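TEACHING EXERCISE
Course module: macromolecular assemblies
Task: Read the component lines below, then compare them to the predicted structure of the full complex.
Student: A.B.
Group: 4
Components provided:
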Amino acid sequence: MNLAEGVQLVSFIILTVMMLGAALAVVLSPNIVYSAFLLGGVFSAMAGLYLLLNASFVAAAQILVYVGAINVLILFAIMLVNKREDFAPVKYAWTRKIVTAAVCGGLFLLLGTTIITTPWAIDSTAAAGDEAIYILGEHFFTDFLLPFELVSVLLLMALIGAIVLARRDIIPDSSNVVGQDDLKLPEKPRELVSAGADGESS
Amino acid sequence: MFVLSGYEYLLGFIFVASLVPVLALTASWLLRPAPSGPERRTTYESGMEPIGGAWIQFNIRYYMFALVFVIFDVETVFLYPWAVAFNRLGLLAFVEALIFIGILVVGLAYAWRKGALEWS
Amino acid sequence: MDVANLASQLNVGVILPEGIVILTLLTVLIVDIIRGRAANAITPYIAIGGLSASLAALCLQWNIANPVSFLGSFNGDPLSVVFRAIVVLSAAFTILMSIRYVERSGTSLGEFITILLTATLGGMFLCGASELVMIFVALETLSISSYLLTGYMKRDSRSNEAALKYLLIGASSSALFLYGVSLLYGLSGGETQLGAIAANLTAGGQSLGLIMALVFVIAGVAFKISAVPFHQWTPDVYEGSPTPVVAFLSVGSKTAGFALAVRLLVVVFPLLADEWHFVFTVLAMLSMILGNMVALAQTSMKRLLAYSSIGQAGFVMIGLIAGTEVGYASMIFYLLVYLFMNLGGFACVILFSLRTGTDQISEYSGLYHKDPLITLCLSLCLLSLGGIPPLAGFFGKIYLFWAGWQAGLYPLVLVGLVTSVISIYYYIRVVKMMVVREPQEMSDAVKNYPKVSWDAPGLKPLQVGLVISVVATTLVGVASNPVFTLAIDSVENSPALSASLAKAKEKSAIAVLPKDSPSLEVTKVASAKL
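Instructor-supplied answer key:
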């Protein structure tokens, strides 16, 4: 093992420990603001792993989009509904945790076995390295052109939807004043009595 | 097999950067006098008396901007490979990228018209 | 690569219908931006016009010489044309019935139509996508716009609840699907085209990875078609969403899900054909039994239609499991029929809730005395959904059961027969309540029923949509043969299915005694007798 490989191994171990630790802390932390900040740590560590896998563009995109935009959005959303409320502790919360841990552990074992036992058809061509970004561009405009263009429509719709859902309803050119009863379903809500006796099975 | 070039500088940079907070805190821990009194524990806010906590309810406007920012951030990520490989791709890719941008410009116009970009 | 060369390779003409839809949605959006609320008077009609143009373009593309476009990303074979046409039709009907509904709720119509058109676009691309990245992007376009539509009435807590449930369950099922797809990518050595994946998988043989990929893919598909046990979101989402959105979800979105199932499972997983047939048999049985049994106990019309749509999905799956030419064709035929009868039913529910503000089944009692038109239309649609003879739904079910019987799926067909009898009970219960009750037994909502008039803005399109779907429900029943021949044609002319069909034929030749006439002829004779 030469110096470069040693450095890579050490970086890999540091990144993995950072990612797993931060991910566990995100799930287990009782404070949602800390969870949101730690999520940024998970995303950054993931970017580091992408880098170790020679995917420099994906790593940069990960930092730019996930850490720079989505994590900030999550934080804003948390700060927006910043209602301090002390919830009553759930009875037997520890059983839930154990069951969740068992399910996750089982899933991990299953997927781990899958990965180890499956004969993967591994592509033997060398990694593109610094050329990757050019190859990516070429793919975007030849064989992945259609998904690429569809993404623009998807983003447009996401923008419209986000604005529709987040804006306040004082529309400058509205002719009718928006009342309290508007913007609701025309159907009346069910009475609470019938809601209980609905014969639900879902 | 790591084949990217130039990342040894990044490694060195991360190393130096991670030393900065450690050094700064240790240095101040060595130099400062021993802490005394509740005043030392309050948040420093340019000499003003701090009111309330730092975790306050944000205005929804920040959220709107963050939403719009996410969308255009993703758009940038998609356009970056096109910009880098522009010389190799040629005219047709230019037209295709124009379609992509054109559709999103409609979105920008929409956000503008609906007041999502205004701080009102 | 040379410009002209690449342009000819892309074969852009195949996605002309989708191009028209994109142009339409941009036009709707721009008109809405420029004219604001005043645009509400024209945007729905622009959208309807665009969708009709897109439908016409689809008709012109029937059986074109070279259906593969965008270097294999998209396949415009007749199979995808039929599925895309169903998606477009369902969107057009949904817009017809949503104009009044959305305006009544005070929300903006232009954005509603834009998001609905985007969902349509996602559904159309999903029907023809033959490459993994394309499939996933189209699936997300459809799903994300569906979440937005579900939560469109944002002041209503039921709508919020529906959107949140749909989003959380939908996002996790998308993640599962993506994981399965990534396993396929790894197993095939970095291929994304479905054909190439299938070829490479055959070389690799069965493995645990392949089974996991199948499980995850089925989870994603079953969520879209809301097959039991992936149905938990359906009743709550259907109850809380705006009713036109429910109409679209139950027809358009489901059709796209079935198209995805046909393309992905049949093309990629021939190695595991027995396994996925078995899984789908279980899913279909559970859907038929649970959907139809729980529907018996519902008090809300929207929830009734939600559970009935779960049961109907179970019927459609019989065609998929049969795996024969007739099986696929009967599945397409049933989806087409289901489009008309289900949308007709929803149009009536919307009209009733617009006039009375409720969707409780008990409030429908005695409606015949006040509004015979709705009563007639709703009765026809519900009876057709139940499968009463002269109507279209009956023929759809006959074809499905016949195809299943021929393929040797006896238990499945028997369960289908029994549950469809059960379903007739709860459909007829509603019909009986509307028709038979004496005037003094009328519900409060019907007693206060407003005078029937079609003058209010947006009611005329609703009426048009209602009448067309009811007429189609009755006419397709009478003239089912040409439509079924069309469905058979679309399956025969789609090369993607031919390999699996050849295999199925081999199997049936071994299993079943040789017959004098091919299976297709038998069905035609049978349907002629009916």
